């Protein structure tokens, strides 16, 4: 994982301010480096002279893959091209599949190859070839790539937006891109949309006009748009079949289990091999005790060496609105719903997976600590700015730290697993059952499509910024491209079986379990986690007690001052 910063200006080299630089270094404590590029003016017969440009790149690195720390920004002395890469290329279709070891240099080499003069017939074909390489990458990323040969600047986020990238323009039309920002100055940043790749033609710049952008849009796998330059998505449109709904079948459960196992295998192997740190565990799970995260923990037990511990980060908050009248021996943290559920699922894991060292990490956050970290959390989640954003960000921010407030030293685990995405793919929110009640499966399909399409805008960039401030990388096994393809291909009734309501006295798990995410519940059942399979869904801000900490009437959508 990396923190990346890039600016391009007509007037001077623009470097990150002190707060932004520190936030970038929090993301990448293993190395940092800067690079300046003077892009000379050129003369085009049709366009006239272009403008000299000043480009500044700064990157920090948290080394997670490979046997050596690969410093950034990556530079090529022969061409002058440069890459800032914040991502994990688990595989690159048609090239190295899967990618073994560090991926950043491999991605850079492939981009250089596709933009070299020996392969490119004209400048426009270099854009097409670059887009094809980026489309072939499977995994989360945000990047800035300067193609010095053809004078193009590329930037964007992966097809889901699993890594953060912010953007702002100055009054002089300067462009600044960064993984994270210090919003102390009040500058308004915006998230780069996860809807394609942006290209700037640096040969077509003037002193008065904004930079010339080209947007390369997404195209689903089965969409046909001849002769249109596009970023090919690795998954199809959602299956809209609603005829003859029945229970999820055994083959569906098996396929989901196999896809999730492959996703977790890529995300839990060969972690931190470049850094000689003696730790009992290399992976931790953001653990509420709910269905999604506990299934991840259960499969991790099958994948990781039996001598390796697995940490379960369970966060609970003191909420003065709820915990104001506690008895002398009552703990506000032990009363939090996620603490109760977490302990229950932890006990079930220990019973089903004997011999594994499970460490239940109690992260207790007093109200004074919440207040003390408020400004930092708000800066990290910016430009998101609602009460709900803050409530969710509090939970993720402290859960990522991985230690109690009274503990003097943080743990060395650098990879966190999150169950995010399961609700959006398999129908786990209350609004999904409401959509079905109002309009049947056709209404449910529309709601699921809406949730899936806005994942990057609503959740992922914010979560990446908040969690990564602890020098850790969050990975989302449910948002693996192969698993997403499976979920979108399945008929909706195979994922969330709302047409067949729950029968509490049935011995058939396909009827005994709740219809929300029934396919995932059946997988948990098959894995022996019968208590977890029956666990109800609870939003993180309510389970950890971060919602509505102050008295008064506030809504999640209320904008913060």
Automatic annotation (TrEMBL):
<protein>
    <submittedName>
        <fullName>Asparagine synthetase domain-containing protein 1</fullName>
    </submittedName>
</protein>
<dbReference type="InterPro" id="IPR014729">
    <property type="entry name" value="Rossmann-like_a/b/a_fold"/>
</dbReference>
<dbReference type="GO" id="GO:0006529">
    <property type="term" value="P:asparagine biosynthetic process"/>
</dbReference>
<dbReference type="GO" id="GO:0004066">
    <property type="term" value="F:asparagine synthase (glutamine-hydrolyzing) activity"/>
</dbReference>
<keyword id="KW-0028">Amino-acid biosynthesis</keyword>
<feature type="domain" description="Glutamine amidotransferase type-2">
    <location>
        <begin position="2"/>
        <end position="203"/>
    </location>
</feature>
<dbReference type="InterPro" id="IPR017932">
    <property type="entry name" value="GATase_2_dom"/>
</dbReference>
<keyword id="KW-0061">Asparagine biosynthesis</keyword>
<keyword id="KW-0315">Glutamine amidotransferase</keyword>
<dbReference type="InterPro" id="IPR001962">
    <property type="entry name" value="Asn_synthase"/>
</dbReference>
<dbReference type="InterPro" id="IPR029055">
    <property type="entry name" value="Ntn_hydrolases_N"/>
</dbReference>
<dbReference type="InterPro" id="IPR051857">
    <property type="entry name" value="Asn_synthetase_domain"/>
</dbReference>
<dbReference type="Pfam" id="PF00733">
    <property type="entry name" value="Asn_synthase"/>
</dbReference>
């Amino acid at each position: 994982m990396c923190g990346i910063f890039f600016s391009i200006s007509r007037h001077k080299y623009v470097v990150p301010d002190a707060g932004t630089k520190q936030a970038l270094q929090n993301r990448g404590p293993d190395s940092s480096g800067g690079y300046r590029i003077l892009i000379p003016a050129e003369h085009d017969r049709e366009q006239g002279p272009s403008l000299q440009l000043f480009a500044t790149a700064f990157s920090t690195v948290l080394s997670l893959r490979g046997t050596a720390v690969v410093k950034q920004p990556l530079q090529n002395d022969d061409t002058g091209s440069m890459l800032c890469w914040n991502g994990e290329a688990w595989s690159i279709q048609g090239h190295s599949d899967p990618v073994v070891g560090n991926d950043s240099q491999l991605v850079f080499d492939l981009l250089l190859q596709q933009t070299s003069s020996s392969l490119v017939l004209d400048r426009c074909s270099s854009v097409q070839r670059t887009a094809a390489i980026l489309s072939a990458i499977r995994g989360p990323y945000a990047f800035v790539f300067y193609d010095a040969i053809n004078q193009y600047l590329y930037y964007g986020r992966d097809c889901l937006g699993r890594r953060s990238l912010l953007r702002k323009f100055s009054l002089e039309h300067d462009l600044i891109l960064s993984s994270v920002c210090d919003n102390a100055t009040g500058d308004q940043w915006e998230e780069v949309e996860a809807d394609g790749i942006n290209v700037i033609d640096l040969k077509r710049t003037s002193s008065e006009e904004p930079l010339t952008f080209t947007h390369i849009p997404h195209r689903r796998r089965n969409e046909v748009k001849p002769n249109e330059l596009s970023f090919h998505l690795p998954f199809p449109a959602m299956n809209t079949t609603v005829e003859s709904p029945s229970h999820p079948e055994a083959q569906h459960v098996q396929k989901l289990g196999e896809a999730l196992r492959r996703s977790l295998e890529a995300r839990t192997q060969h972690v931190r091999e470049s850094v000689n740190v003696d730790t009992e565990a290399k992976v931790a799970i953001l653990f509420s005790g709910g269905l999604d995260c506990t299934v991840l923990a259960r499969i991790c037990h099958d994948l990781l060496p039996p001598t390796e511990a697995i940490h379960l980060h369970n966060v609970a908050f003191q909420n003065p609105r709820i915990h104001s009248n506690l008895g002398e021996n009552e703990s506000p943290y032990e009363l939090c719903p996620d603490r109760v559920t977490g302990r229950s699922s932890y006990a079930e894991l220990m019973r089903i997976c004997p011999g594994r060292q499970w460490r239940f990490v109690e992260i207790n956050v007093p109200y004074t600590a919440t207040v003390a970290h408020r400004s930092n959390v708000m800066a990290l989640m910016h430009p998101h700015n609602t009460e709900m954003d803050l409530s969710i960000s509090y939970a993720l921010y402290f859960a990522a730290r991985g230690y109690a407030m009274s503990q003097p030293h943080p743990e060395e685990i650098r990879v966190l697993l999150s169950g995010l995405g399961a609700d959006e793919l398999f129908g786990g929110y209350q609004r999904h059952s409401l959509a079905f009640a109002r309009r049947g499966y056709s209404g449910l399909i529309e709601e699921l499509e809406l949730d899936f399409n806005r994942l990057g805008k609503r959740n992922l960039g914010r979560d990446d910024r908040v969690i990564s401030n602890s020098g850790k990388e969050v990975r989302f096994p449910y948002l693996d491209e192969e698993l997403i393809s499976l979920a979108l291909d399945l008929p909706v009734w195979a994922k969330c079986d709302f047409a067949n309501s729950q029968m509490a006295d049935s011995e058939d798990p396909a009827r005994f379990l709740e219809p929300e995410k029934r396919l995932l519940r059946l997988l948990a059942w098959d894995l022996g986690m019968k208590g977890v399979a029956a666990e109800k869904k609870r939003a993180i801000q309510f389970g950890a007690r971060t919602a509505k900490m102050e008295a008064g009437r506030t809504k999640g959508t209320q904008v913060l001052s």
